[in-house]
Amino acid sequence: MNWQPDWGLRGRMFVTMFLLFALYIVFAGVLTLYIGGGLWMIAILFGGFSLVQYYFSDTLTLRSMGAKKVSADEYPQLHSSVERLSQQADLPKPTVAVVDSNVPNAFATGRNQRNAAVAVTSGLMNTLDREELDGVIAHELAHVKNRDMMVMTIASFLSTIAFMIVRWGAFFGGGHSRGGGGKGGGGVLVAILVSLVVWIISYVLIRALSRYREFAADRGAAAITGNPSALASALLKISGEVDKVPDKDMREEAEMNAFFIIPLKSGIVGRLFSTHPSTERRVEQLRELEQELTMA
Predict the structure, then answer these.
(1) Residue 107, strand partner residues
(2) For the residues 194-212, what does the mean pLDDT come to?
(3) What gap in Å lies between CA 120 and CA 107, rounded to an integer?
């Protein structure tokens, strides 16, 4: 398959990004109006920390997930698949890592195409056949090719600052009020309330954007492998196995949801605010792509 753009999907992503941008412009204006330089300094310091964290995202994410970088001697078949699929996707070969976990899943991380990593769990390799594993790896490579780590980091940057202002605003607001700057404690309270609203709205928009990018990565995987049905089969297998994981294991692995190809479910609320679209919708899209490939 050719790497053809889905203009409907791109349009939805553009609208979501536009709404986020407009929201953040209003947010920045309110902060400037009501709190002057007080909490802005905290925002700048935290922003600098976030940029450093993003720069080292591949190493930090692998470490936090318990992923171990592996050599071609240790996992020859896995390295062979990643190298072959990277060439097909016109990407530099990323770092290859394995997570020792029974939960079948995979994720990609890295700030750009030359500083990326793809990790799979031992449970994934034990669950899928060769073509299905290729489909999952291709999905993660599509995330790298689409620069999704960068896009989602930029999209969530001011949302995270809004959350930190809500969390720490009362503490710093007290000192700000005593100092007599800006519009006093009342202005800080307004800024905290606006930050809360901004965080809630951006939380919903960012998750919508994340779901759209999962669809885009599925399409990319189909283009890389030319085999959409293999990824569809893998998604169904992974989803079925994830549902069998005990609650205790699910709590331990829940922090990986933002990176996994299939998120771990945590009830109705968890599915409502999921970073991923439903497996059923993804499989439906892949079957449509399979039909397009057959008719081509």
Answers:
(1) 119
(2) 87
(3) 7
Radius of gyration over every alpha carbon of the chain, rounded to an integer in angstroms: 21
Q: Is 140 one of the catalytic residues?
A: yes
Contact at 8 Å (CB) between 11 and 144? no
Find the catalytic residue in 74, 83, 132, 140.
140
In contact, 172 and 38? CB cutoff 8 Å? yes
139 carries a ligand binding annotation: yes
Backbone angles phi, psi at 115, to 5 degrees: -130, 65
284 labeled part of a ligand binding site: no
How far is residue 143 from each of residues 115, 150, 213, 241, 263, measured CA to CA in Å?
A: 13, 10, 8, 23, 16
176 is in an annotated binding site: no
Band (pLDDT 50/70/90 cuts) for residue 272 is very low
Which residues lie below 8 Å from residue 212, measured CB to CB, with a gap of 6+? 9, 12, 13, 16
Residues 6+ apart with CB under 8 A from 236: 279, 283
Q: 280: Cβ–Cβ under 8 A, 6 or more apart, which residues? A: none
Instruction: Determine the Cα–Cα distance for residues 261 and 174; give it in Å rounded to an integer.
Output: 44
Is the per-residue pLDDT at 48 higher than 90? no
Which residue did the predictor score with more confidence, 124 or 271? 124
Rounded to the nearest angstrom, the gap between the alpha carbon of residue 173 and the centroid of all alpha carbons in its chain is 32
* Strand 106-112 with 115-121, pairing: antiparallel
Instruction: Dump the DSSP string for 39-61.
Output: HHHHHHHHHHHHHHHHHTHHHHH
Q: Where are the domains of the chain?
A: 7-55+152-199, 58-147+209-295
Rounded-to-5 percentages of helix, strand, coil across the chain: 70, 5, 20
Q: Which CATH superfamily is domain 58-147+209-295 in?
A: Metalloproteases ("zincins"), catalytic domain (3.30.2010.10)
Does residue 244 have a pLDDT over 60? no
